[in-house]
Specification:
Blueprint: H1 11-26, E1 32-33, H2 38-46, E2 52-53, H3 60-77, H4 88-109, H5 116-121, H6 123-126, E3 137-143, H7 145-150, E4 157-158, E5 161-162, H8 167-174, E6 179-185, H9 190-215, E7 218-222, H10 231-244, E8 258-262, H11 270-280, E9 291-293, H12 302-314, E10 331-336, E11 338-339, E12 342-343, H13 345-348, H14 354-357, H15 359-364, E13 379-382, H16 401-410
Parallel strand pairs: 3-6, 6-7, 7-8, 8-9, 9-10, 10-13
Antiparallel strand pairs: 1-2, 4-5, 11-12
Helix pairs in contact: 1-3, 3-4, 9-10
Amino acid sequence: MARFDGGRVAPLEWVGVAAGALALVDGFLSWRHVKGSPEVVDLLRTLGVKTWYTAWGSGVTGWLPVLLLAGAGALILAPGFGLRVRGVPVLWLAMAAAALVLILIRWATLPTPDAALLRARNHWIVDRGDGRPSVNLVVLSFVHPVKLLNLTTDSTTLNGIPRGFTPELVGYFTARGIRVQLSIGGITYVDPWNQALAANAAQLGRNAADVARRLGVGIEIDYEENSGPNLAGLQAFIDAYRAVLPYDASGANPAARLTIDVAAGDRWLIDLNRKATADWLRPDAPVLDYANAMVPARQPSTSGAIANWQEHIDGKPQYSPPVPPLAPAKFTGGLYIAEGGKVRPECNDFAASLQNSTGSWLQNAAPNGAGSTAGLLGYMFWAAERPSTRGVTTTPPNTCEGGVGAGATAYAIPVPMPALRQS
């Protein structure tokens, strides 16, 4: 291998070599990034949205100039290794000029990736195509229970809640008549729920109420402990919350809205469901506003979805102790709008959707031992933007005006949400 002779490279040529080396290093740094408040940028990161891009992720007009400049630097070094390359000055100048032109083209055509990105990706939520929102409720997920208890501030959390859950974000929805709730927990945070309830359940409830009042949002309890849930602790959480924000049947105070997630039917989260139905969701003595029957492991068929929801209405008298019946007016039914690698018709094709095929049943489901009026409260959809770290999203081109939005029109969903039926 030929030894390098630096004397064959002129001093001015070293400038070109340095430019090529700097271009190569710069190609791995941030060329463009999302603009906006730190809270909005943190929310985008939480949702799995990339907030910065290198030259290699910025298209051919990003990475090709880097390669041209690096290649030009390599040409200049060639004589130092004893290689004869004709017309090096001309080649170097042409490559550098081409790189400059490509960079200028890239800058001139670069879209502005600012906070509007969040709106663009979720515009279908606030506009079903005719200016009206597709939904009347948005649930922001998830709050870490231990961080909320300790009012943690770190790189992703501010005073116990994700940094992206800001008054500006809440106001973006509420200004359009859409209620907002924060979900505490989720399947990932079962252990943190247990830890927070064991440490100081009442303080956790007071902290949740304070966040709700400060942001003007409701709270959703998503405590998915299937084996021996801390029901005494959860009762203390609810009691502390209600001591600050009493039950409000009118719905006038958004912070008083306190709900709970239960399983799709009565065969999972049994202890939690039994306690919620018997003590917190009674029409004659309501403590929580309603329950959301979450999505099952995969999108059900029409008959499967109805069978799951009917279990809540009927209860499980054969269980020991039994699960009492739940009033239809005290729960919603959950459906996927994106699942794995599939965009569901529930998102973009109302005619083929479960909210279409189950709609008549859902509106007319009769009480069977609890409640006095027919019909569930409505549907809840999992989930807008990015339901999981892998799989499809509901961002363009997979937006949900044609499914969720069309369903809102077909069923004349009121926006804003009116007072809820109590029985």
